[in-house]
Design a protein that fits this description.
The protein is built from 13 helices and eight strands. It has helices spanning 17-31, 34-51, 54-67, 85-95, 105-118, 121-132, 247-263, 278-285, 288-292, 300-328, 336-359, 379-387, 397-407, and strands at residues 138-141, 157-161, 164-171, 182-188, 199-205, 211-217, 223-236, 240-241. The strands form two sheets. The protein has a four-stranded mixed beta sheet. The protein has a four-stranded antiparallel beta sheet with strand order 2-3-7-6, with no helix packed on it. Among the domains are: 1-100, no CATH class; 254-407, Butyryl-CoA Dehydrogenase, subunit A, domain 3, CATH 1.20.140.10. By secondary structure, it is of the alpha+beta class.
Length: 430
Amino acid sequence: MGEAPGERVALDESLSGEEVADRVRAWVVDHVPQEWRQAAAAGGPAAVRRVRAVADYEKWYPVFGRSGLVAPTWPAAYGGLGLSPAQSRVIETELRPLNLGRLNPLGLNQAASVLLAYGTEEQRQRFLPPILTNEEVWCQLFSEPGAGSDLAGLATRAERDGDEWVVTGQKVWTTWAHKSDFAVLLARTDPGVPKRQGLTFFLIALHQPGVEVRPLRHMGGEVDFNEVFLDGARVPDFQRVGPPGAGWRVAAATLSSERQMVAGSGSGGVDRIGGSSAQRLIPLSREPLAEHGGRGWSDPGVRQRLMALYSEERIRDWTNQRVRARARAGLAPGPESSIGKVHQARLNQLVQLLAVDLIGPAATAWERVGEDYPEGMPFEVRGMLRSRANGIEGGTTEINKNILAERVLGLPRDPDPWLETPWQDVPRGG
């Protein structure tokens, strides 16, 4: 099943768009399994999903990772191709029908963005290539039970012990920690200074003594989130990113990248897993199941909702183009990432609700498959339930609105009487 070892595509910045497209097509013929290619030619991404098992895609994925096509604008030294954004868009156009979504999104967006911006050359050489091939999966250890919206108030401690740091504390709502090998970690290294000045950024291995991951099942029945308990876990100083005490500044790159990923403007997949666009709902609206209930394409109200959502998606795409334009210009992320995140959270919820409306009674009852109750649940229902988290993950909608109010509209910040107080002297409940 396409077990070719994989090879880097011979591309460079001197090539025209047509030359880039030709070489990508040649690579696809040589390395993508024939069944997937035939499905893509016949019915695009949806047809590919029907013939390609998740396990098969994960097994084949390192071939994709070694090609350089996963992150073509990255430098070749780290597994990319050193191409221009325009050439990268040509690649996406060629790959989109094949639904070659990027795995390891938290590695590609959070860990990689920090390493490219603040990491040492040794750190980049060590960690970036396995991210591309999905051979080392990443998560993000930021939020805590007492430090979610006020992330800078976190209590997890890291204390220096020779050439290592010893970490103790608790993190929560950690997406995919149960599947991850490494995590980006924000921990307090100096409690004697104000909260934002005493934080340090680390890369921590999760498969070690002192790390316990406890999965949390969400209302869709699946496990995405986790609690992570750290009790004497160790991090080599080599895996510290930035100077001690500079963690808040380093983490800003991660947080912005997370918002971009949730908004759809990061370096995620060509077809975001679990997502559903208004355009992809049009075929669903024409299926007999929808038409039978009177809520399909023949219903003018449905057509109005579909076109309104499609228009909102175009607005989202234009906002995301502004985010990418700043990145291409070498500028720090602007407020567009928060704008896109707020907009996308609500938009995806409306899209998913419409999908559930279209399938009608099938959204309220289905045949159970096996012992795990999500099995058999319609894809549309699962997407609708999962979309409830969109207003929380990547920073809550309320926090992102505060960012926009302060940084875009120039409104005054909420007063914080403890802002300049040493963290250890700030009163805490409990």
